[in-house]
Amino acid sequence: MTIYLPIAELSVNIFIILGMGAAVGFLSGMFGVGGGFLITPLLIFYNIPPVVAVATGANQVVASSISGAITHFRRGTLDVKLGTVLLIGGISGATLGIWIFSLLRSIGQLDLMISLLYVVFLGAVGGLMLMESLNAMRRAARNEAPMPRKPGHHNWVHRLPLKMRFKKSKIYLSVIPVIALGFAIGVLTSVMGVGGGFIMVPAMIYLLRIPTNVVVGTSLFQIIFVTAYATIVQAATNYSVDIVLAFVLMVAGVVGAQYGVRVGQRLRGEQLRALLGLLVLAVGIRLAIALVVKPADIYSIVLEAAAP
Amino acid sequence: MTRFRLTLAAAVLMLAAPAASAQVMLDQPRTVRETMEIGTSTGEIAITSDFAGADLTVFGALSNTDQLLLAIGQYDIVVVLEGPRLNATVRRKDRVFGIWVNTRSMTFERVPVAYSLSSTRPVDNITTPLELNDHGIGTEHIPLTPIGLVGNAANLADFRDAFRRLQSASGLYEHDPSGVRFVSSSLFKATLRLPADVPNGVHTVRAYLFKSGKFVTDKSLPLRVIKTGVEQMITDAAHDRPISYGLFSVLLAIVTGWGASVVFRRK
């Protein structure tokens, strides 16, 4: 059964889109990630124009993050104050990101930059994930204890000025790195159509030393608002949010995520992370190959309204 | 005196008249030019979301034609359906550090987005390339005027060829060299192909009449192509009310995400 996507301007098989949404939803539920970094490249593989894939990916992340954020808010593992500071950076970053996005689009380098960014980020994150999980598996096989975190160790981040007390996180931290992190993630949200959790969570834990229990909830809080903002601004500037595509993806995604969560609770962490790492790497490699292989036609046409 | 002058004038006229009329017969055998009228069954085409392309029939009538020339096929008709005009940017990829990157580009000014042509014979057999270029008839002769600076001429030819090739490959530029048929001696019928992704907007049906390779007259009619259905409503909303559209997309995402968590918690 085919369905016409009005903004992407092509007909697609609805079951492939449903399957894509469900699979990514399942993985995102299993690993606790938003899934935007998988959805957007998969859509590009399925010939959805990258402009539409990015904007629609951002919209889909809003849906996939909301139920997680509600759960964390109820449990009290969401630091609204810290999230708001992140959000200040995030919104400004997303605004700059949209500007970069439109600029790249007008000079015809958008598709290339999206692919390049994905190759770099998916390659790095997938590689690190795989290495870390393989090390953990090796340690488990030798019956070694995991390396303990050095307590009380402070890095350069903690010597920055403009400190603020975040009660819920029980941390006294400069707002500069928090806003900077939010800003960087905001740029990525606009340009890549991701929530950015896969970068934000490790950065909050290892760089900002924010207690792990509030990290996921707080990052989801920031992700929802920044992706919602990016969706609206993409719709307003590039007219590239495909609501039909987004809706099919999100319905399949939220259902898939519920099952993913259940399966994820029962499986071993290291093996799961190794699998996700492999998957992420594979998607990155597939994108890299597309950049290197000679395209079917080296010419392409873009039509735009003529000035009156 | 006056009478003599008048008589002389009359005599001169009488002498000159047969010669003058003979001259008219030789140089311009006809005193009235051929005219052409065309009509389509509809001035508006509503395209539903399951549209997979269609044929448009254009009827036309010729009058004041020379029956002899008509009989030996000296009249040719070309009918085209031209889509709305947009600026088209053609980009060329080159390998840079092993990666295929858009390097050069050229923008052609106000080119028809779609172009479907039907004729009595292949257009290149009807008349000279010069005449075709003058009127912009045929996919090879549509004027492609670049905006801004053009590096070198060879480049320009490459970009023009690429544009025509890509537009033909996507079915937006088509030609049927036998799509126009005479139904009777003065009535003709032309079939034009509307591709599945025919663009929205005001198209122009234009018919050209040629006699022995010379352009005689042309006639045009507007044809409005309107896409209908839910998909088109969504496209219109996205372009006409982008902020509300964006807000609605976000709202839909919130409701879906929230709804799922409520439904699954109950289970």
Structural write-up:
The complex is a heterodimer of chains A (308) and B (267). By secondary structure, chain A is mostly helical. In chain A, 70% of the residues lie in helices and 7% in strands. Chain A has helices at residues 14-31, 36-45, 50-75, 80-106, 110-141, 175-192, 197-207, 212-238, 243-266, 269-292; strands spanning 2-5, 10-13, 163-166, 171-174, 299-304. In chain A, the strands form two sheets. Chain A has a two-stranded antiparallel ribbon with strand order 1-2. In chain A, strands 3-4 form a two-stranded antiparallel sheet. Chain B has helices at residues 2-27, 67-71, 123-126, 129-135, 153-169, 230-240, 242-266; strands at residues 35-40, 44-47, 54-63, 75-82, 85-96, 99-112, 115-119, 173-176, 180-182, 187-194, 201-211, 214-227. Chain B is α+β, with helices and mostly antiparallel strands and 267 residues long. A six-stranded mixed β-sheet of chain B has the order 2-12-11-4-7-8. In chain B, strand 5 (85-96) and strand 6 form a beta hairpin. Chains A and B meet through helix 3, helix 8, helix 9 and strand 5 of A and strand 5, strand 6, helix 5, helix 6 and helix 7 of B.
In short:
By secondary structure, chain A is mostly helical. Chain A has helices spanning 14-31, 36-45, 50-75, 80-106, 110-141, 175-192, 197-207, 212-238, 243-266, 269-292; strands at 2-5, 10-13, 163-166, 171-174, 299-304. In chain A, the strands form two sheets. In chain A, strands 1-2 form a two-stranded antiparallel sheet. A two-stranded antiparallel ribbon of chain A has the order 3-4.
Shape of chain A: globular
Q: What percentage of residues of chain B falls in helices of 4 or more residues?
A: 25-40%
Q: What's the N-to-C terminus distance of chain A? A: 41 Å
CATH third-tier fold name of the domain at 34-83 and 113-227 in chain B: Immunoglobulin-like
- Give the overall pLDDT of chain A as a whole number: 86
Over all CA atoms, what is the radius of gyration of chain A? 20 Å
The biggest sheet of chain B amounts to: 6 strands, mixed
Which chains make the largest contact? A-B, 54 and 52 residues
Ends distance of chain B: 123 Å
> How many domain modules of chain A?
1
CATH class category of the domain at 34-83 and 113-227 in chain B = Mainly Beta
